[in-house]
Design goal:
CATH class of one domain: Mainly Beta
Number of strands: 34
CATH architecture of one domain: 6 Propeller
Helix content: under 10%
Distance between the termini: 27 Å
Largest sheet: 5 strands, mixed
CATH superfamily of one domain: TolB, C-terminal domain
Structural class: mainly beta
């Protein structure tokens, strides 16, 4: 039985609606539209025909969910695979990072916490490392936990062995831009030892200012910043191909262009400096309806594959373990949190993507389903990120119910 020491105050937050004031002058040119002054940012980009739409971001359940209310038995996987509840009680948990001693750290978005989970072989226990941050993400590197929020960067040296470790504040070194919309973080240290950080578009659709719609990399201390990708609206997950070491990432398509367009993207960065299209070109060569440019997709790196309309493609993981069958080696898993800007819900699952190392012949197939009921157009879970364990099993986080599942395979 899992024991968690987490406050369970009920907090409901409509994802994407919170906006923090900024002292900096505006750095974007938003699209004008029928959105009243003071309306939430997610309404930006609607046209007059959509002004009465009842579509809105779906609220996250940011309170601890008891195991009895998490219907893991509804989840379906290919034959031979098993999924089980590995931990619970971490509301809003998103991306995970593992320390050298095996502790797992989890960032959140709406709730502003970083959790630490300890597994003693019999049970998992949890504590809150830091609270009241602005959408923190985590990574572990050279014995230190890195925490990136919208407006803060903290490094906890040796925290997995010293729970009282005090953070080193690196915020000034990273010079973070202030806008909040699509600026929440997913961070990873790459094969080059540098930390990769996305800065999403501060809008649904706009001409972003220079700090936005890009992926940057830094030395671990915040020095030597480089912009490695531009035209990236909102990446929420990336990984490096195990053979080529090229960066692959998901990217969310804009809202309010219809139920089926544009699709979210799966992108491959063959070299630093590529442009992936935002705001002029979306998905597999679709010109934006509001921000127009002649030959909008010229020079744009098109995606390896579409990930479905408004699917909220999140974590991306190349599988390198030995537990799963050989056909899964170097294959990619993508968690799709699920749509809100669509009259019929889409996503709410995990898919496997198999392709050549160059991205050719990409094929997307279901891997974990059952988080949603298509007939009733309802959902209970929202899968978001992966962490591969030493034994080759996969951990999968569920932001909606604050749970982590373990996926294993038995021959």
């Amino acid at each position: 039985m899992h024991k968690f020491l987490i406050a369970t105050t009920l907090v409901w937050l409509a994802a994407g609606c919170a906006q923090m004031p900024s002292s900096a002058p505006p750095t974007v040119s938003p699209v004008a539209g029928p959105v009243p002054a003071g309306a939430p940012a997610w309404q930006q980009g609607r046209d007059a025909n959509q002004a009465a739409s009842r579509l809105a971001p779906l609220p996250g359940k940011l309170t601890a969910t008891p195991p009895a209310e998490i219907p893991v038995q509804n989840l379906k996987l290919p034959p031979g695979f098993r999924i089980e509840l590995w931990s619970h009680g971490t509301p809003g948990g998103r991306a995970m990072a593992r320390s050298d001693s095996g502790k797992i750290y989890i960032g959140t978005r709406g709730i502003g916490r970083v959790y630490e989970i300890t597994d003693n072989g019999r049970e998992r226990t949890s504590r809150v490392v830091v609270d009241k941050l602005n959408q923190p993400a985590v990574a572990f590197h050279n014995g230190a936990l890195y925490v990136f929020a919208i407006d803060k960067v903290l490094r906890y040296d040796g925290i997995d062995r010293n729970p009282n470790a005090q953070p080193v504040d690196l915020t000034a070194r990273f010079n973070l831009p202030p806008e909040q919309h699509h600026n929440w973080k997913y961070i990873r240290f790459g094969p080059d030892g540098k930390v990769y950080v996305p800065f999403g578009a501060p809008c649904n659709i706009c001409i972003p200012g220079e700090p936005y719609a890009q992926i940057r990399r830094y030395d671990a201390d915040g020095s030597n910043m480089e912009v490695v990708a531009r035209g990236v609206r909102n990446t929420q997950g990336f990984d490096w191909h195990p053979v080529t070491r090229e960066l692959w990432f998901t990217d969310h398509g804009r809202d309010w262009m219809g139920d089926d367009s544009p699709e979210d993207e799966l992108n491959r960065m063959a070299r630093p400096g590529q442009n992936f299209g935002f705001p002029y070109c979306h998905a597999n060569g679709i010109a934006d309806r509001d921000i127009r440019k002649d030959r909008a997709c010229d020079g744009v790196t098109l995606p390896v594959a579409g990930m479905g309309p408004h699917a909220a493609a999140m974590g991306l993981h190349f599988y390198t373990g030995a537990m799963f069958p050989p056909e899964y080696r170097n294959a990619m898993f993508v968690a799709r949190k699920g749509s809100w800007n669509r009259s019929k819900k889409f996503g709410y699952d995990v898919v496997m993507v198999s392709s050549d190392a160059s991205g050719a012949n990409a094929r997307v197939t279901p891997f974990v389903t059952g988080f949603a009921n298509a007939d009733a157009d309802t959902f209970w879970g929202r899968p978001v990120y992966f962490l591969q364990q030493a034994d080759g099993s996969l951990l999968l986080s569920d932001e909606q119910v604050g749970a982590i599942y373990r996926i294993s395979y038995a021959r």
